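2024-03-11 09:14:02 DEBUG pipeline.ingest accepted 1 chain
2024-03-11 09:14:02 DEBUG pipeline.ingest length=484
2024-03-11 09:14:03 DEBUG pipeline.predict start
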Amino acid sequence: MSLRGADVLARTLAAAGVRNVFTLSGNHVMPVFDAALDAKLSLIHVRHEAAAVHMADAWGRLTGEPGIALVTGGPGHANALGALYTALAAQAPMVLISGHAPLDELGKGAFQEMPQSDLAAPLTVASWTAQSAETIGDDVARALREARKGPVHLSVPSDVLDSRTDAQVRQVEIPTPTTAKIPPELVNAKRPLVIAGPAAMRARRMGGMPVIGMESPRGVNDPSLGKLAEVLAKADVVLLLGKPLDFTLKFGKAFAPDCRILNADAAQVLPEPSLAQRAWFQEVDAALRYRPAEWASLRSAAGAPLHPVEVCREVQKLLDARDAVFVADGGEFGQWAQACLRAPRRVINGVAGSIGSALPFAAAAKLAFPDAPVVALLGDGTLGFHLSELDTAVRYGLGYVAVVGNDACWNAEHQIQLRAYGAARAHGLDLLPTQYGSVASALGAQGADVSTAEGLAVALQRFTAGGKPGLVNVMIERAAAPRY
């Protein structure tokens, strides 16, 4: 019995273990929606194509399984592209499948015709367009294999999806991760460091030297890594595991001039520190853990907006639960959150420095770990990107908690203005002190607008037991992100 190309696509995904597809409907991909029924794929239908990519990105980072995003062609594909950049910088295993104008109409002014694979190519590790129903199973299998290196794009023309074929559903063979040979210089160094990029951070290792994971656009000034810059400047040998010598490391200027820099794609087994090296690693650990002592007792004045540290102090109580997932967006409030909060699992905006991904990330995290507390922290500016994804979380019963630090400002850029141009020239960045908790309630979620630590604590406790997504809007002061 022959199958449509759409059936081969859907069944190849299912045979590879894919359970959820993050998607937004459109003309070109409706055959895949139909095929998903028989393939028993669950479609998580979002409100914006970028959110589908963000969810697939977070799924891939948190589970190690390639996340799958499915969008329509033309403007749907274009909407998804910005989120691909975030996934690429995070080296996230995911596949974007985009509908596409029919092959037999290309060059004739087809509906929503666009050079999709060319547009996606700079944002992926591989990007191409399927050419026939006979080979679409091979295309999907290849995409899933390639996605182990980072995001992949596959465009699927609508006539390929509708055509019938006798081709069989493909079985996907995932390549075994390689293990890099450990350079002897690392073993003999006095002050070695191992620095991992996002993908290498997620690789499983047994013992060995401590690894510093770098995934923040603030690089050596990442507030979650304390006094990282100080220890980088002292290292004599550095092994970069899947970590480019890019702007986050000041293109190598973060290290001493005589520091030896080594590179490897992956290493599952690192050497154990020698007795002489252990004191050095204790110094490194203390530097990374450093936080100003005054944060422990920091309080805002009575009646004043809360300081971000006060907000994080309450949120940490939720993240102390076993298997909790911490999600953080960009911006100044996101940097405070990353500096103050810890959890067994976390997913952040990443090296791309993008903003707006927190709610889609949180939804994917809750889908992946339904029994774990999932808490997302984001600013009021970033909330505007995907506020409507609360509707998605309500429809699918994804009961995460979002905490919005509301300073009625694009504060990251406001701080740039203050530093570079002075207070008299800081302008154009104000927002309204909107009651986003009320907006969340209108979308069917739990919502609260608070201005005190006590009110925040009550809302967090109530929302974690509510079974629905919850959003706490907290008025905060316009505090610059921490710089140690």
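2024-03-11 09:14:41 DEBUG pipeline.report DSSP finds 19 helices and 18 strands in the chain.
2024-03-11 09:14:41 DEBUG pipeline.predict end
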